[in-house]
Task: structure prediction
Amino acid sequence: MHKDFTLYPEAFGLKQLGFNEPCLTYIYIEDTGNNYNVPCAVLPSKAKNFNEDDLCISTPTYSQAFRWFRDIFKLNAQIAFCEYSVSSENSWKYTLDNPTKVQIWDGKFDSYEEAELYCLRKLIEMVKNK
Result:
């Protein structure tokens, strides 16, 4: 289940961009004893925006992060499996549709999760550079 949640660098990037939705998991970023840099989870009824706390970073699911980019920045991401008939090389790719309807394809990845991670990194980079 841990693979469903964003990693620290991406969660930190989302926090810098203003991500402010309730999450089920977070990471302590300050030394609070044994909990430093340890992912923590809460019950669904205790979900909150942990980014409001200076000691924590919310770690949303990938689908939650992608939805946030669609809703806030109008950036749509799609992960797709590509079959290559010429070289018989299969891989995963991602596509980003931005508000100007320009599609950005990038990379060849061995797994869906790897494509998802790099796609999220690209979204964070695109918004930071605007």
